[in-house]
Amino acid sequence: MEFSFLPESYGLFTLTPYILKIFLTGMFLFAGFGNWFGIPLMYNTFEKIGQGHWFRYVTGTLQLSAVVLLWANGFTLYGALMLAVIMGGAVVAHFIWLTKEAIEPSIVLTVLSLLLAWMHLPIDCVIL
Fold it and tell me: Does residue 5 belong to any structural domain of this protein?
């Protein structure tokens, strides 16, 4: 029995989901643990939102749960959609409570999460 992390063909479209998963994993591990441990960037952001620190802990837990789903067989689609919803909420938070100057990373992570979700749609699901 042979186990391989990557499929046999190594084309760009075959490797792109893995590259996106690795990038999103790194970003959201940092963000999730940052929320849990209260690094100043995350702490101050949630202070400005004004929902209390329970919201920071919930957001960190959701981010870390989504990272686990990214790597669970058959659940990548759900993890990517979960990240897209979290980051969509971050975009809304930037418009309402935070500065609009720092909104670009939230938009980029939302788009990348949606791209990863699109790449993991079932074959018989036709979009575009």
Answer: no
pTM score: 0.82
CA 116 to chain centre: 10
Lowest mean pLDDT among 6-15, 60-69, 71-80: 6-15
Residue 24 lies in a domain: no
Q: Which residue has the tokens 């960037």?
A: 41
Number of domains making up the chain: 1
Lookup result for tokens 């969509």: 88
For 99-127, the pLDDT digits (tens) are 777 889 999 999 999 999 988 887 766 56
**Domain assignment of residue 75, given as a range:** 29-119
Do the domain assignments include residue 44?
A: yes
- Token digits of residue 99: 């500065």
Q: At what angle do helices 53-71 and 40-49 cross, to 10 degrees?
A: 120
Give, in order, the Cα–Cα distances in Å from 59 to each of 72, 87, 119, 123, 125. 20, 10, 25, 31, 30
Asked if residues 85 and 66 have their Cβ atoms less than 8 Å apart, the reply is no
